[in-house]
Amino acid sequence: MSAALKSITPIVRKETLATIVREELRSALMAGRFQPGEKLTIRAVASALDVSLTPAREALYNLMSEGVLDSGPNGTVFVPVLNQTRLRELTKIRISLEGMAACEAMAHLTPRQISKLTTLNTKLSEAELRLDYSSMIQMNWKFHFDIYEAAQMPTLFRMIEGCWLKMGSYLNLIYPAYGETGEGLQNHQRIIEALQNKDAEALSQAIRKDIEQSCDWVVQMVEAG
């Protein structure tokens, strides 16, 4: 079983297990818990989430039908591998969609939510400084999606999820190199300042810059092989 699967909390609820497994896997993909091309087996998923083989199989097949996971010979299931062209396309889409979501979110974010985002970003920064990139990547996902959820635009939110489902695993490729530049921390500081100033345009621009720089690194790492 992969380390990523071992890190997922086992499921204790009994209703709609296939749906729960599916959502757990979606979250794990967006949070960067898997590597590009990583193989997922029905048995390993079932064991990690403490469910039977049937809901694990149904969840994996459902994600394949959505295009979230790919299939290979002998029914193998794996995290998609993307080329540079596809990564650049997804980057452009993310910049547009997430910049829009951030701008829309500013009108709805409460002082309490902004305070929570500030606290989360502090923890994220601390994780990056101590080189705990696995935790940092997961907190980064939550940080961004807490902002996007505040936009109260469920269709837009689902579209953003679709992009992260494809690209989440690739965030693993840019660390530790990208972390050593300090660019991510600087971008997040700009995001926090925009949130505290209630500046929607500055927030949108900071989010766009954060995506652009990190995704540029992803493409470079893929090109370098």
How does this structure look, described?
This protein is mainly alpha-helical and 225 residues long. Helices cover 69% and strands 3% of the residues. It has a three-stranded antiparallel beta sheet. A hairpin with a 5-residue loop joins strand 2 and strand 3. The longest helix has 25 residues, at 200-224.
Helical content class: 55-70%
Strand content: under 5%
Shape: globular
Distance between the termini: 26 Å
Coarse structural class: mainly alpha
Radius of gyration: 18 Å
Order of helices and strands: HHEHHEEHHHHHHH
Give the integer mean of the pLDDT values.
93
Give me the count of strands: 3
Number of helices: 11
